[in-house]
């Protein structure tokens, strides 16, 4: 597969190396700090799929450009979801292909699945409060993490005592606290904690490297071309 990498930072480089190991061709690399704008240098025919990991402020424009050029796009950038419905509408209008996941790791997507199951069971049996922590490297721009937001949505859907989230200690019982920590080069840890008077139950995912994110993004890129629509890891992994 001929892959266009949009963003060649920590994730773009990890994905590029793994893509070559998996027998793919890097058709081009677009990075803000490169000397030229490379999307313009590519005809859609020269690219099978683009993989976009850049910045919260640039992801939406990059996705729209890919869709406009008929390039299927796998986007991993977080912090731009206030524009997601516009991207969905353009995908539908143009018959394009868009894949988005706040976290491409297979392990985190299992974590999302178990998170929703646990939230529903905790709501059913009662007596527990719930809170979340996410820990990332100090270069991370957005807060809370995209992964924490997806996990929070899963809790709010199944645990009616929480109706909203707050990126700080909860001030009201109905708020789900998401505590964000930034330390060193922490790759990404997410912890959901349920506490009752008598015990504590935790669901935790800790990424040891970026390889898991990169592999998931490549699995999505291998799967997406030829599938018009908007997709995520639930469709890819059949969760
Ligand atoms: N969905 C997932 O599984 C994961 C998502 N991420 C997200 O991916 C994004 C990138 O993460 P990292 O690679 O760690 O960041 P990074 O800062 O190491 O790399 C980002 C790169 O994008 C470039 N860039 C910025 N604006 C650009 C633009 N308009 N066009 C082209 N290139 C541009 C920068 O020059 C930089 O080289 C973040 O939003 C992060 O939260 C990170 C890891 C996993
Ligand atoms: O910026 C990161 O590094 C990560 N971002 C994603 C997020 O915001 O959830 C995924 C992963 O946790 C790493």
UniProtKB/TrEMBL annotation:
Q: Name one Pfam family in it.
A: DapB_N
Residue spans making up a coiled coil are none
* MF-aspect GO terms: 4-hydroxy-tetrahydrodipicolinate reductase
Q: Which SUPFAM superfamilies match?
A: Glyceraldehyde-3-phosphate dehydrogenase-like, C-terminal domain, NAD(P)-binding Rossmann-fold domains
Q: Provide the family line.
A: Belongs to the DapB family.
Q: Where is the Dihydrodipicolinate reductase C-terminal domain?
A: 107-237
User: In its keyword annotation, does this UniProt entry include Iron-sulfur?
Assistant: no
Per the record, the domain of life is Bacteria
Q: Which residues form the Dihydrodipicolinate reductase N-terminal domain?
A: 1-103
Q: Which reaction does it catalyse?
A: (S)-2,3,4,5-tetrahydrodipicolinate + NAD(+) + H2O = (2S,4S)-4-hydroxy-2,3,4,5-tetrahydrodipicolinate + NADH + H(+); (S)-2,3,4,5-tetrahydrodipicolinate + NADP(+) + H2O = (2S,4S)-4-hydroxy-2,3,4,5-tetrahydrodipicolinate + NADPH + H(+)
Source organism of this protein record: Hymenobacter negativus
Specify the enzyme's EC class, one word. Answer: oxidoreductase
Say if the entry is tagged with keyword Kinase: no
The pathway entry for this protein reads as: Amino-acid biosynthesis; L-lysine biosynthesis via DAP pathway; (S)-tetrahydrodipicolinate from L-aspartate: step 4/4
Q: Could you identify this protein by its name?
A: 4-hydroxy-tetrahydrodipicolinate reductase
UniProt keyword list: Amino-acid biosynthesis, Diaminopimelate biosynthesis, Lysine biosynthesis, NAD, NADP, Oxidoreductase
> What EC number(s) does this enzyme carry?
1.17.1.8
């Amino acid at each position: 597969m001929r892959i266009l990498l949009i963003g060649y930072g920590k994730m773009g480089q990890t994905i590029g190396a793994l893509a070559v190991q998996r027998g793919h061709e890097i058709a081009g690399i677009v990075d803000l700090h490169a000397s030229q704008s490379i999307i313009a240098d590519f005809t859609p025919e020269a690219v099978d799929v683009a993989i976009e990991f850049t910045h919260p402020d640039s992801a939406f424009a990059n996705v729209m450009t890919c869709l406009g050029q008929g390039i299927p796009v796998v986007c991993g950038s977080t912090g731009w979801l206030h524009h997601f419905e516009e991207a969905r509408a353009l995908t539908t209008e143009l018959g394009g292909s868009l894949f988005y996941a706040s976290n491409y790791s297979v392990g985190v997507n299992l974590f999302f699945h178990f998170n929703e199951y646990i939230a529903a069971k905790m709501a059913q049996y009662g007596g527990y409060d719930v809170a979340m922590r996410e820990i990332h490297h100090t270069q991370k721009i957005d807060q809370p993490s995209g992964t924490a937001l997806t996990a929070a949505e899963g809790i709010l859907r199944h645990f009616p005592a929480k109706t909203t989230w707050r990126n700080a200690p909860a001030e009201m019982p109905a708020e789900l606290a998401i505590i964000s920590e930034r330390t060193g080069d922490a790759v990404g840890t997410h912890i959901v904690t349920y506490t009752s008077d008598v015990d504590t139950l935790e669901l935790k995912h800790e990424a040891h490297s970026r390889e898991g994110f990169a592999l998931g993004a490549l699995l999505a890129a291998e799967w997406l071309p030829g599938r018009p629509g908007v997709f995520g890891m639930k469709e890819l992994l059949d969760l």
